[in-house]
Specification:
Elements: H1 11-22, H2 28-39, H3 41-59, H4 69-82, H5 85-92, H6 95-98, H7 101-118, H8 131-152, H9 157-163
Helix pairs in contact: 1-3, 2-3
Length: 164
Amino acid sequence: MICPLLNNANAAQRERLLDYTAGRLDGPEKEIIGRHLETCPDCTAFQIEQMAVWDALDLWTPAPVSLDFNRRLWQRIDAAATAPWYKRFAESLRFANWKPVVPLTAAILLIAAGFAFDHPGRKSALPGMTIKEADQVEQTLDDIDLLHQLDGVAVPPAAASKTM
């Protein structure tokens, strides 16, 4: 058997190890994992740690709920529902509501800054020539090409005499 803890690709085997520790396995799977636990110190340590967690959870007792809990809860819900719109708006702007947004904003700004530093702007292909001058040269060359194309189209002499 391949060790479920060392094999990151097989999550189903890790689930089987957890099921074995919880006592939910029967038959040949239980025997296979039991034999593996005898030879694998990592899985044995996992089983001991998991059982310690479950024992601690069994010992934990929640605090008792007060008798007027429901009444106070409904009072708070009613008070929040009847609060004026500006108080609800101010409550939505509290910093605690924005805490998840701060790391995301920082990551976006970091990526944007990296992109800006990596791509500082368009540079001219020819040293000493500005982008505006290069655009003017390109426009001039396009105009010359258009004139050459018009020269290539010859007007027949008979058509030229009719237009005059």
